Amino acid sequence: MDSFYRIKRLPPYVFAEVNQMKASSRAAGDDIIDFGMGNPDFATPPHIVEKLTETVQDPRTHRYSESRGIKGLRKAICQYYARRFNVGLNPDTEAVVTLGSKEGLANLAGAISSPGDVILVPNPSYPIHQFGFIIAGAAVRNIPVAPDGDFLAALERAVLHSVPKPTAVVLNYPNNPTTANASVDFYAEVVEFCRRHEIYIMSDVAYSEIYFDIAPPPSILEVPGARDIAVEFTSMSKTYSMPGWRIGFACGNARLIAALARVKSYLDYGAFTPIQVAATAALNGPQDCVEEMRRRYRERRDILVSGLAAAGWPVPLPDATMFVWAPIPTAFRHLGSLAFSKMLLREAKVAVAPGIGFGEHGDSHVRFALVENSHRIRQACRSIRAFLARYHNTIEEAERRVDARVGAAG
User: Fold this and answer.
1) What is the rounded distance in angstroms from the CA atom of residue 351 to the CA atom of residue 361?
2) Which of 37, 63, 193, 258 is the least crowded, having the fewest Cβ atoms under 10 Å away?
């Protein structure tokens, strides 16, 4: 039997291979230190949990909610944008609550694109950025990730050489997986270009509150005129350690927000009301929990990067996100990221995400998610150091044997 059309357009899920290996290793009794999935391990702050517990006691909250989100949460979202980005939004027309940013991105992709439409997506990128559109039948054209002249040149080429003209471009800063950051000036250039060519912008800022050595990352909606063409997605998952709660939001262009809200009205009745009330408490309540989360991610980042350097694996120090984007050590780069990730899991009992899972341009890297505690990170670095030393010694021995054979032949 032939595969369904949309399923045929989806490649095998690369991360599933590593996940299967992890499961087999754990079943065999191995202790796997897992940096693979960006699944925050911190507890959700107590005041948020308490608000959920309090609200769920009221049976009226057990009924269907609102697909676009309760009014109180939409107002809290707009107040957050006013505080954080100095952007004024209308909670009735420019904000919608989503079941996490992933659901919102996928449903808006389905709402605005048709088979054959061209969408510009960075590569490497978080999988839903391209596959949301691929599932909808659109054609995805890859563009660079770094917010620089190459990115802007790629936009120019896409308009000149894409038929039909691109419908939308996806942005994601701070970027998952590369950790790259964008400035307001870069956003302004993209907005000016896309307004001129009538191209929508979908911006994902899920990691905008996880930053360390830089000013707080900006929103594209800070740019005058951005709301004419742009919508921005974010999530409560990382900022407040609420990944399993599945709650996020989209803000910006009223036409795009209305399209997303209309699609959602056919697909869901919104998140469980007590979760929305708790999310409102998170946005409106004390924010010291977010600062503490940043501090702990910074500590983990520093331990991991310094530990890998001591192991002989230098990697860039990210200044945002909960990830480390690590170039594969030179001696192993020919393997590609999937084979190297499997080797690291088998030999060092350390799981990472292969870069190929984020697109072919990620195949020279692996991604570490900072979701293990400091003790476990140090343990992982010791294991990686031993693994790299074993292979370094093996390579040296092989080279000595080759040299000896060459010498004897001479």
Assistant:
1) 20
2) 63
CA of 286: how far to CAs of 282, 289, 363, in Å?
A: 8, 7, 41
- Do the beta carbons of residue 269 and residue 66 sit within 8 Å? yes
**Coil vs helix vs strand at 235:** strand
Strand boundaries in 84-137, DSSP class E: 95-98, 118-122
Q: Which of 185, 168, 173, 165 shows the shortest CA–CA distance to 230?
A: 168
pLDDT tens per residue across span 196-245: 999 999 999 999 999 998 999 999 999 999 999 999 999 999 999 999 99
Rounded to 5 degrees, what are φ and ψ at 75? Answer: -65, -40
Classify domain 5-43+289-409 by CATH number. 3.90.1150.10
Q: What is the DSSP string of 310-324?
A: HTT------SBSSEE
Provide the residue ranges of all domains of the chain, joining segments of one domain with +: 5-43+289-409, 46-284
What tens digit of pLDDT does each residue of 35-84 get? 999 999 999 999 999 999 999 999 999 999 999 999 999 999 999 999 99
Within 63-138, strands assigned E span 95-98, 118-122
Q: Which DSSP symbol is given to 227?
A: G
Total Cβ atoms within 10 A of residue 331 = 13
**Whole-angstrom distance, CA of residue 351 vs CA of residue 198:** 43
Amino acid letter, 400: R
Distance of alpha carbon 387 from alpha carbon 234, whole angstroms: 38
Of 14, 22, 327, 279, whose CA–CA distance to 179 is shortest?
327
- C-alpha closest to that of 394 among 331, 333, 348, 314: 331
Element housing 204 (H / E): strand 200-204
- Which of the following CATH numbers is that of domain 46-284: 3.40.50.2300, 3.40.640.10, 3.40.50.300, 1.20.950.20? 3.40.640.10
How far apart are alpha carbons 248 and 235 in whole angstroms? 4
d(CA 268, CA 373): 36
DSSP β-ladder status, 248-252 and 230-235: antiparallel
**How far apart are alpha carbons 367 and 377 in whole angstroms?**
14
